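Subject: Proline--tRNA ligase structure
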Amino acid sequence: MKQSKMFIPTLREVPNDADSKSHQLLLKAGMIKQIASGIYSYLPISKRVLNKIEAIVREEMEAIDGIEILMPALQPAELWQESGRWPSYGAELMRMTDRHGREFALGPTHEEIITSLVRDELKSYKKLPVTLFQIQNKFRDEKRPRFGLLRGREFIMKDAYSFHASEESLDATYQDMYRAYSNIFTRVNLKFRPVIADSGAIGGSHTHEFMALAEIGEDTIAYTDGSDYAANIEKAEVIYKPNPEHTAVQSLEKIHTPGVKTAQQLADLLGRRLDEIVKSMIVKVDDRYVMFLIRGHHELNDIKVKSYFGTEFVEMATEAEIEGIMGAKPGSLGPVGVDKIEIYADNSVQDLNNLAVGANETEYHYINANIGRDFNVKEFDDFRFILEGEQSADGSGPVKFAEGIEVGQVFKLGTKYSESMKATFLDEQGKARPMIMGCYGIGVSRTLSAVIEQHHDDRGIIWPKSITPYDIHVISVNPKQDVQRELADELYETFKQDYDVLYDDRSERAGVKFNDADLIGVPLRIVVGKNAAEGMVEVKLRKSGESFDVKVDELKATID
Ligand code: ATP
Ligand code: MG
Ligand code: MG
Ligand code: MG
């Protein structure tokens, strides 16, 4: 494709609301355009990358007998009422009413539609198992759309659903999917980790998430180097062991801590370990306000609350609510004035003494706070606390944390939807039984962004070969020079027979062209410049920055 005829609106400056590296680069490289919060158009370069990712996804799905279909995005409320999710799905569901007053939703996921499809069409055990998948835009009215394509309100998902006559059959497909997902994320060149995403013990898990490792990731993974076990921190089964060094009980003392805003800063100031610092956090659980005492490195924002407590129903109380109830600012509550609410803590906090805590006063903290003496605590059963650096429960080494982006999830649904929506099949004895189901999602547009998070440098994107928008970027430095233009034209015509070629034939300054080329990130560049007259061009590799002069007759061999 000739760049003079392309639509690649690259930007010199990054818009300042772009909140992640991939978001910045997608905008800067002219790959996406925001239409509304969390809603984007995919411009030609990103569309090409999406096509490549989708082709890989299709291949891997078809390799495990997945059958592609396309279901409507517009879904009637009746089906959601049948499954019971119409009232429970909440504010993320984009709801609307048609001209006859009938309610609809824009699909955030398709369990209801697929279950209604399959129950009407597949009635015998002989037709099972079956796996159906689609690649389609999904709609979720996210509370906080952010990081560009990483958390959109309209985004592209591959969703697959499998239907089975037995648990064993579901297990087999789940394993196939797990392998297919590993293949997909390997092929798009993501560094990723599959993690356990429910509280089942090792091996007995019903769901895994595939996490692309990236600092920007909103999930935290707990893992050890000594085993394959890795879990979303929401669900990790890692038992804390108290440190006997810190059990001597000293008296509570208030100290001045100028400038201290985070647990880490307090730890640094006091020369203490991060896990000896306690933060208080007040959250609303159902209708109760609950104060959690949390040690170490936790950030008090609502996203983190969700991921650390893992229960969808936990919300931060608003500042006004907290002030109203506690007479205190959020996150700054010391062991005073807390008689109006119940206080909960995990076991690990209870058996630690001489902790440092906020004193409910700016720039003051208490040291030597003792749980039980200075704090009144109760246990909160559902809450398991894990600490970086502590021995894991299975003895496989110290627990490590990493941030991850959830790019996919595989899930054993069981009969949740088939029972509520009466999707039954006749077994060998002619008896009607609910189908056993699995569902499997990949964020296609999120995957594209995750790849950029992992593959870029200061100058722009560095595409892995498997999903690059073009294989070769031919640049004629000065197309006004006949020799250069003619050679570049010729190379373009030749190479486009076997490769996807982007050809910068624009009459822009060389600097502009090189900047754009770095930004767009095609792995291999052929620069036709002054040496064209001698039949020489420059070949440059985007990743290493290496470049070398090559004779035109040897170019084909060099590149192949
Ligand atoms: P998250 O925890 O990030 O909100 P989710 O668990 O709600 O994701 P699933 O219902 O498991 O998402 O959907 C399958 C996949 O779709 C996810 O693994 C993710 O890759 C992708 N996805 C989910 N929500 C979004 C979004 N708002 N924008 C882009 N991709 C998304
Ligand atoms: Mg979500
Ligand atoms: Mg999730
Ligand atoms: Mg998920």
